[in-house]
Each structure stands twice: as C-alpha cells, then as structure tokens.
Amino acid sequence: VADRIALLSAVGSGTCLYNAARDAVTMASAVGGRRAVILLTDGRDEIVPANGTPTSCSSIEIDDVIDLAANTAHVPIYALGIGADADARGLGRVASLTGGLYAQVSGAPEIDAYFNLLSKQLSSQYELVYRSQAAPGAHQLVVTINIKGTLISDSRRFTLPEPAAFPRIIARIDGAKVSCAVAVAAEDQRTRPLLQ
Fold this sequence. Notes:
Radius of gyration: 25 Å
Mean pLDDT: 81
Helix content: 25-40%
Strand content: 25-35%
Shape: elongated
C-alpha cells in the first residue's frame, strides 16, 4: 500500500470534495445492509492552481450531494473537518441533512474520539420499516421516541410513486359469451371498479 501511495502525485493542491462525496455515496448505495459514508477532509471544495487563487473544483454543488445521499441513496454522511480551514458550515449541513454527524477536530486525539463516537452510534442504531398507506405524492414522516422521559424526534421527506395497476378478474359479466375475448369486471387496488 505504501508503494502505491508513493506513486500518487497532486496536481496543484486542493480537493474536489463534492465529487468525492458523490462517488462515495454512489459506491455505498450499491452495498446491502447498513451503509454510511465518512467524509474526512482538511479543507473545502476547491483547487488552488499555481497562481494561488482558489476556485471551485467539483462538477456538482453541495446540494446535489445532499439530495443524492438523503433522498435517493438514503446514505448518511458523517463528516470530519480537520483544522481551521475545513468548511464547517458546509460539512455540518451535509451531515445534518443526510442523517450523519459533523465534528471539527484539530489533531489525532480528537479524531480518535470522533471515530469512537461514530462506532458507538452506528452499532446502536435501529432500522424502522413500515408499509405506508398514504396516497401517492410528497409526504413527511416524523418519528418520536421517548427514552427515559427525553423525547427525541427526527423526520424525513419522501415521495410515494403511483402504484402499478394490477387488475384482478372478479366476475364474468352476465350474458357474455366465451370466445377469443371475454368481457369481465375488473378492479384495481387503487380505485374500484376499474372497468366493466
């Protein structure tokens, strides 16, 4: 591994942070079970070319990462900003809106403490699954739990698609003759009756 790392070279300096976060969320979403992304950075989404003027580096914006992680892939991002140059506001927003945590640290002992906290949190999570009876469209789910008198709430927005129609034959229409086509009464679980 050390030999491979030695072969890497930086062109300019900086980090295409949002592209990296998008790629990490995409990779994590392809894995089954509990998933999370840990975003460890000492800076911002920028590249500093030879002239010294920082410019945005990623081909996407921070909101694109948040939307992908929170609404499409459902992968929380745990962000860790190292040093004073880390984008605390942006990293905190990514973590908060995707269900992760953010911390700003200055050295190894704090990094170790953050990973211990992260390990405890990830190993003590529960997954709540339910079947919605709500109509198609945009909704917000709010879950509130009571732990020894302390109420903790969280919410997520989601969109339920139109269900596919699955017709079910319920009766032959009286007087219809059996031939290549049979007149039937049918129903759709969304609306009844579908046709007659």
